[in-house]
Amino acid sequence: MSKILIIDDEVQIRSLLARMLGLEGYEVCQAGDCKTAIKQLEAQSPDVALCDVFLPDGNGVDLVLNIKKTAPNVEVILLTAHGNIPDGVQAIKNGAFDYITKGDDNNKIIPLISRAVEKAKMNVRLEKLEKKVGQMYSFDSILGESKTLKDAVLLAQKVSVTDVPVLLTGETGTGKEVFAQAIHYNSKRSKQNFVAVNCSSFSKELLESEMFGHRAGSFTGALKDKKGLFEEANNGTIFLDEIGEMAFELQAKLLRILETGEYIKIGDTKPTRVNVRIIAATNRNLQEEIKAGRFREDLFYRLSVFQVHLPALRERAGDIKILATAFAKSFSEKLSYAINEMTPAFLQALEQQPWKGNIRELRNVIERSLIVCEGGRLDVCDLPLEIQNTHYECSDDTAGSFELAAMERRHIARVLEYTKGNKTEAARLLKIGLTTLYRKIEEYKI
């Protein structure tokens, strides 16, 4: 039930409003002055405050500021016997939901309160969502106990409170975007947009249009003006993944943003100004790229004001069990399938892998293993075949279970069962071509 706080020094008006709101199904609490109102606010946690402008110990317009400071999610509607424009304007500036005149606007009160209650509840949902996002992208969400990882996290934490550009280095799949998000959501820009773009996913022309935008008619197909990703990220953070893949010509444009905060859109003549923090990432050695003439040296020094190197998974093998457990828990919740155990052989097989794809590859392997797992126990037999070929010890001692063809048939059948016969999705999970999958289905008579 929604709760309304009525703040008015006239007992008769409070009683009338309380009766009216009670009939509408609202729970009501009351206060006759500013001091009592703040106490009721803390004790009752109302959704909306219906407040008179003239109170014995203060002014309702000023009280709005105190209410918003004490309970930011509460919406305030001001009531006055003698409305005037300056008070109304100031009330809205102070954060009031609305400002209405007693008597003339009585028929508006109930619908207005209904809208204010809805907004107050939305404020609460938004606050919970922001907390959830903050927890999701906090540095605590980066799993691992190895010293190399903890050193990287410590550096990222230190730089997050500043506004300097950051360069994240490390192999593909080491979690560079996770680090970039953690830096953003722990910075003063956390309430603004975080925009990620993979520089290797676009051609030079398309990347320029996506990043910087264009004017209508600037090239064939440009039918209307387009905002670029830098504009979308204004006052927030832009994450440029695989920066080493960016075309040499575009690097000059990026350098200008770093130096002046402005750039010129395709087909435009006037510069566009932005206030953006840049976090870049690469799996290449940019010093070697500079020597080869593929990367600007001046851009490198502007981007790498602060560098954080992310260790490869093989350099932190002790963290594999922690990560595997977390991934298994996450996927089991999605699949509504409880995983009670990971056998020592299963974990040993994981720890002995080279993990060229790092955390991303491990995550994929755990997902695939859960799909074929039976009995809530992850064993070597549940691992993808390319790993099983080197770690064939399995608790299933049924004759024939060690034959490669039998293992492969069972594996494919389980994946197809999981995808409900969707062969394209099955081929993706199995990491084989669709044609190969059809051939094996026919070969094994699945």
UniProtKB/TrEMBL annotation:
Domain Sigma-54 factor interaction, first and last residues per copy: 142-371
Q: Which Gene3D superfamilies match?
A: 1.10.8.60, 3.40.50.2300, Homeodomain-like, P-loop containing nucleotide triphosphate hydrolases
Question: A single GO BP annotation from the record?
Answer: phosphorelay signal transduction system
Q: Is the keyword Protein biosynthesis in the record?
A: no
Q: Which GO terms describe its molecular function?
A: ATP binding; sequence-specific DNA binding
Q: Which SMART domains match?
A: AAA, REC
Q: Respond yes or no to whether keyword Mitochondrion is given for this record.
A: no
Which residues does this entry mark as bearing 4-aspartylphosphate?
D52
Print the keywords alphabetically: ATP-binding, Nucleotide-binding, Phosphoprotein, Transcription, Transcription regulation
Q: Which InterPro entries has this protein been placed in?
A: AAA+_ATPase (IPR003593), AAA_lid_NorR (IPR058031), CheY-like_superfamily (IPR011006), Homeodomain-like_sf (IPR009057), HTH_Fis (IPR002197), P-loop_NTPase (IPR027417), Sig_transdc_resp-reg_receiver (IPR001789), Sigma_54_int (IPR002078)
Q: Which residues form the Response regulatory domain?
A: 3-117
Question: What is the protein name stated in its UniProt record?
Answer: Sigma-54-dependent Fis family transcriptional regulator
Which organism is this entry from? Bacteroides faecium
Lineage start: Bacteria, Pseudomonadati, Bacteroidota, Bacteroidia, Bacteroidales
